[in-house]
Design a protein that fits this description.
- By secondary structure, the chain is of the alpha/beta class.
- Helices cover 29% and strands 27% of the residues.
- Helix 2 crosses helix 3, helix 2 crosses helix 8 and helix 5 runs parallel beside helix 6.
């Protein structure tokens, strides 16, 4: 038996139940992993609250973790006991001391990267990778707007976009987060509670607008994000922390021939080769120092409900990692 969280009904952080579970042994093509660090992501909140559908109830939340392979299923080559591996997104279930995973879902973690760093960066970093390199390919001379610039994904987007030669504008909620966003490569930081971000973007760009907006906020920023775009600009919505955008009038896009997309990581890592290539580029940028990973908050895994509460109430910045109690 191992400890894991189970969710029997959708709702607030209180629905997370810390229980003993039996996970079995790996079958053919599977591995059993003992976790050293578990990533916490806003998508965990979406699933728990019902904003995103879960396959069934009860379920174990979590879509990102790093750990050591402790058992290997029959007929499997290329993975062995003792390997340090990471995974994200599929299958769900990382809020646990151990998990059975398809061997095809994991990527090797370089020896030079600490497990806590890897667990904090894989999902957010792969997200930043496809947003910047594939959904809209950022190039030198572009101007980009990043909402929630001090968040886990926002921090990486700002650093990476800056390294790619773009002018980076970021929005944040507090002066403290503005300092972090500046450190992470934002050339211009807008504290949206103190000033209108649309007016400031218009001022910064001399009325031209930006090539792309990366928006994980959703409802509260959607219309403003459209207004910030230049002709043929891209609004890339990849989250909805303020609520979903319910209706979109196509005529609003026609005003400037705008592009609107709602991408998902799973469609950019459908093949094993795509996953390995993206993870390799991400880890290389971490090792080289292009990306500095901010693990600003660490909680014991057993206190995941408290971590959810803090995340939802905007008490956090950067990445959040849950540490299995046996690893503390």
């Amino acid at each position: 038996m191992v400890k894991a969280f189970r969710v029997y009904e959708l709702g607030g952080p209180e629905v997370l139940k810390w229980e003993d579970v039996e996970i079995g042994e790996p079958k053919e093509g599977e591995i059993r992993v003992k976790y050293k660090a578990v990533g916490l992501n806003f998508i965990d909140v979406y699933f728990r609250s019902g904003a995103y559908p879960v396959p069934s109830l009860p379920y174990t939340p979590g879509v990102e973790a790093v750990g050591e392979v402790i058992a290997v299923g029959g007929g499997l080559t290329g993975r062995k006991v003792g390997d340090l591996v990471a995974y994200c997104m599929i299958p769900m279930g990382s809020y646990a001391e151990e998990q059975i995973l398809p061997a095809s879902a994991v990527v090797p973690v370089p020896d030079s990267i600490d497990p806590i760093i890897a667990a904090s960066v894989l999902l957010k970093g792969l997200t930043a990778h496809y947003l910047l390199r594939r959904t809209f390919k950022v190039e030198p001379g572009h101007t980009v707007l990043v909402h929630a610039a001090a968040g886990g994904t926002g921090s990486l987007l700002c650093q990476w976009a800056n390294a790619l030669g773009a002018t980076v504008i970021g929005t944040v909620s507090t002066k403290e987060k503005a300092v972090q966003a500046k450190e992470d490569g934002c050339h211009h930081v807008i504290i949206y509670k103190e000033e209108d971000f649309v007016s400031r973007v218009n001022e910064i760009t001399s009325g031209q607008g930006v090539e792309v907006v990366y928006d994980s906020v959703g409802k509260d920023t959607f219309q403003g994000s459209l207004s910030c775009l230049k002709v043929r600009g891209y609004l890339v919505n990849f989250g909805q922390s303020s609520g979903s955008v319910d209706t979109v009038r196509l005529s609003a896009l026609a005003v400037k021939s705008l592009f609107l997309t709602r991408p998902s990581l799973r469609h950019y890592t459908e093949t094993r080769d795509e996953l390995l290539e993206a993870a390799g580029e991400l880890f290389a940028n971490v090792v080289s120092g292009v990306l500095k990973v901010r693990v600003n908050h660490k909680y014991p895994l057993s206190q995941a409900a408290k971590a959810h509460e803090d995340l939802e109430n905007r008490r956090t910045s950067g990445s959040i990692v849950l540490i299995p109690d046996g690893e503390l």
